[in-house]
Amino acid sequence: MAIEAIRGNKVRAGLTIAGVAIGVFVVVAMGAVVNGIRSSFQSDLEQIGATSFFVQRRSNGISGCDGTDEKCPDRRNPPISFEEWNLIKRLPGVETVIATLGGSANFAYKNSRVDNVGYDAYSVDWPKVNASDIAPGRNFTRTEDAAGSPVVLVNDTLKAQLFGQSEAIGKQITLNGQSFTVIGVYSPKAGFLRSLEGKGPDTPRAIIPLQTAVRQLQAFRSGLQLTVRPLPTARQDEVMDEVTAMIRSRRGLKPGDRDNFYLVEQDRLLDTFNQLFGAIFAVGLALSAVAADRPNILWFVVDDMSANFSCYGEKAVATPNVDRLAREGIRFSRAYVTAPVCSPCRSALVTGMYQTTIGAHHHRSGRGELKINLPPEVTPTPKLFQQAGYFTCIGSGLP
């Protein structure tokens, strides 16, 4: 009977079999991709050091920030300072502390020019946390860092764009019009975390001494990010407690006050990774099961994704055009939205309507008790997706 049904409905049977095969292929392929990315991510973390942790101004996690102080407390956190960096280096149990600043600049050599190149400004021990091969050339010295010397290392991609096949070592280039000497060419070891941060081998990038960035490129904006590596004989949790106590004491925080800084161990980074890609994998599975007469749609509206998914001066997402506008100044001669703050803009994204039309233009996040909701007659885009049988999620990934 089944065989006769297949023979009598060859087209439908063929489409059904093809749909099942495609669904199985999608599940297997997505699982392989996610597992491969996870392995690469873990490899990047292992290069930093199994017990190393980060000290930073803002959280790495995926948050439900809505612009209010209650939901976004870290937006008012003070930056991690040079004084705090030096104090952490003196703590018992600490082997080394690498400080990092990020920025972008326009690089030029004779008639060659590459704009908005991201750079990392490191303290001298940076190879301990950023596995790279330097050849030809060398790393900068501790003396060059302390003096703010105008020296720079370029990666292979930037070297090719500026110099082609010619030698780069010893050449004078300019960063935002200031003269620098190329002392090394480095090859970053590829990995998912490096690529996510815009530091993969195919992205033009440079490394300069930390003090050079501060003195010559005015790079100190949102503060330092520190990578703390404990001594092999020290316990990570004890060193983290010492760092926490020192920063709280220096900032005058009382016992009931929350920490206005973040210590992030590698397990938390891996948890964030698993949350993000777990949600993507779940959505992919759901979409693979959607009926053939409904198109597959994967639509993300990303908003206030905390420090590593924003343009507040952090390094994880390169925003060279925003950085350039902030550096050169912005002249407001045109208005493209009716309310240039997060919540009203968010309402426009999910409704496709002007904020003035839906009454959201007066909303000011974190100002007073006024809460403005969308009018009941307005149907947001996620609701339309739900009505059509699609899966939707907000924030933590719950349907």
What strand line-up does the widest sheet have?
2-3-8-5-7-6
Secondary structure tally, helices: 13
Task: Estimate what percentage of residues fall within beta strands.
Answer: 15-25%
Q: Major sheet: size, sense and barrel closure?
A: 6 strands, mixed, barrel
Average pLDDT score: 76
H/E element sequence: HHEHEEEHEHEEHEHEHEHHHHH
Sequence stretches where pLDDT stays below 50 over 5 or more residues: 305-314
Q: What does the radius of gyration come to?
A: 25 Å
> Given the C-alpha coordinates, what overall shape results?
globular
Q: How far apart are the first and last residues' alpha carbons, in Å?
A: 41 Å
Residue share in helix? 25-40%
Please identify the structural class as seen in this structure: alpha+beta
Number of beta strands: 10
Report on this structure.
With 399 residues, the protein is of the alpha+beta class. The protein is built from 13 helices and 10 strands. Strands 2-3-8-5-7-6 form a 6-stranded mixed β-barrel, surrounded by 4 helices. The longest helix is centred in the first third of the chain and has 39 residues, at 10-48. It has helices at residues 2-8, 10-48, 82-89, 142-147, 156-163, 192-196, 210-217, 236-250, 266-288, 320-328, 342-351, 355-358, 381-387; strands at residues 53-56, 94-109, 112-122, 132-137, 151-155, 172-175, 178-188, 205-209, 225-230, 262-265.
